[in-house]
Amino acid sequence: MLMLTAILLVAALPVMPAQADGTAAPKAEKKICRGLTKTGTRVRAKPVCKTQAEWDADAQANHDHARGMSMMQTR
């Protein structure tokens, strides 16, 4: 009975992935979910989940696109 308990306790321990150089594996970035609605529809917002870096990259791309469009209008 004692042996079975020990085996079950060892099996229940979380497994931590170790890298070859002994450092801990990097933690995954937290996902941020936002409700995005499609223009021209009354259907409720669809959740979109991305990391903060992905949201920042999208915002920068939208800013660059808007700036490019305004530059075309001033010519």
Helix/strand layout:
Layout: H1 2-12, E1 31-36, E2 46-51, H2 52-73
Antiparallel strand pairs: 1-2
Describe this entry's structure for a reader.
Helix content is 44%, strand content 16%. It has 2 helices and 2 strands; from the N terminus they run αββα. A two-stranded antiparallel ribbon has the order 1-2. 0% of the residues are buried. The longest helix has 22 residues, at 52-73. With 75 residues, the chain is an alpha+beta fold. The termini are far apart. The mean pLDDT is 78.
Percent strand: 15-25%
**Distance between the first and last residues' Cα:** 84 Å
User: In angstroms, what is the radius of gyration?
Assistant: 24 Å
Shape: elongated
Instruction: Please count the helical segments.
Output: 2
| Average residue pLDDT | 78
Order of helices and strands: HEEH
Instruction: State the strand order across the main sheet.
Output: 1-2
**Spans where pLDDT lies below 50 across 5 or more residues:** none
How would a textbook summarize the main sheet?
2 strands, antiparallel
Report the strand count: 2
Instruction: Summarize the amount of helix as a percent range.
Output: 40-55%
Structural class: alpha+beta
List keywords for this structure.
single chain; two-stranded antiparallel sheet; alpha+beta; 75 residues
